[in-house]
Amino acid sequence: MTTLRFDGRVAVITGAGNGLGRGYALELASRGAKVVVNDLGSAISGDGRDEEVACGVVNEIVAAGGEALAHFGDVGSAEDMEAMIELAVSTWGRVDILVTNAGIMGGSVFSPPEMWDKSLRVNLHGVVNPLRAAWPHFTAQNYGRVVNTSSSSMMGTPHSVPYAAAKAGVVGLTKVLANSYGEYDIKFNALMPTAWSRMTGRNPEGIYRDWLHKHFPVERVSPFVALLCHESFELSGEVFTVGGGRAARVLFELTDGWWEENPTAESFAEHLDVIMSGNNPIFATSGQGDLARYADWLNDPAEFSKEAIELARAGREVQP
Questions:
Q1: Domain coordinates of the chain in residue numbers?
Q2: pLDDT in tens, 18-65
Q3: Considering 24, 143, 163, 208, which one is annotated as catalytic?
Q4: b/e burial code for range 236-262 (CB count within 10 A of at least 16 → b)
Q5: Pairing outcome for strands 10-14 and 68-71
């Protein structure tokens, strides 16, 4: 089996001072990557600042014979993220890998607007800002590997509304980017990690915390992130859940459902069992992918051109 190396590659990782981000930085550095370790050193609420957090990871990498630099910028600031990417490029001449890992917790559905703004600023804008800064370099060299951190909380984890909403946005962002820029050798994928960290350690259930601590170390997530970051990894627009040594693809499926030309609320109610059934699912890979179903039902090429049908079908993957 060929060892996946990153010699000559430059990686930028946000939120790399603790937990998962630290694990990613150490993993990539151990495989030859030069790493920018970004971290404000704040609490998981986003409050406070401690530059020693990022410096500590840099010292670990350098002590092991690697190359790394610390950056203390705020991912919610476009200017700070431009400076972060410029640090990588001015020092090592390029940037090849971006892992957007920084995140904060806090708030509920009825939290005041400023709490929502704070969460979206870090958890969603904190993905867009470094991507925007790295994008000219990725396109100029026709190469890049991007791993955006989402969360399974977007599936409906109770009492995590601002965080989960932002993380759902990360999935949508990742998929749109992958479908929009396929002409480049730039791959975008999203990760839903499960690991013992400062965030999961806040869970009030002691048994659950102990189980995570025992079976879900960061070191069982980092290897898959290394795979996603490698030049040999060709998939793009995918979402993966990773933790405890397991990696799995996350799918968003659309079933056949019920169709009629002139529906009413009553007819939909009458066929709700069909709408809710799992018949003939497909994987939704784009906003247009499901339109091919309508083309089949309508069977009217005058209204839905052959080219549009083919485009829609190309945007979906039929489940075997």
A1: 10-249, 253-318
A2: 999 999 999 999 999 999 999 998 776 667 677 899 999 999 999 999
A3: 163
A4: bbbbbbbbbeebeebeeeeebebeeee
A5: unpaired
CATH 2.30.40.10, domain 10-249, yes or no: no
Plot region of 32 (φ>0 → left; ψ -120 to 50 → alpha; else → beta): left
Q: What residue ranges of the chain have pLDDT lower than 50?
A: 302, 304, 316-320
Number of Cβ within 10 Å of residue 33's Cβ equals: 25
Per residue in 89-132, pLDDT tens?
999 999 999 999 999 987 778 888 999 999 999 999 999 999 99
125-141 vs 113-123: helix crossing angle, rounded to 10: 20
Contact call for residues 83 and 77 (beta carbons, < 8 A):
no
Q: Which of 111, 188, 180 is nearest to 145 (CA)?
A: 188
- Clarify whether 294 is annotated catalytic: no
- Judge whether 153 and 123 are in contact, CB under 8 Å: no
The answer to whether 102 and 90 have CB atoms below 8 angstroms apart is: no
* Integer Cα distance of 7 and 30 in angstroms: 10
Tokens of 24: 């990613």
Q: Are 41 and 14 a contacting pair, CB within 8 Å?
A: no
Question: How many residues are recorded in the chain?
Answer: 320
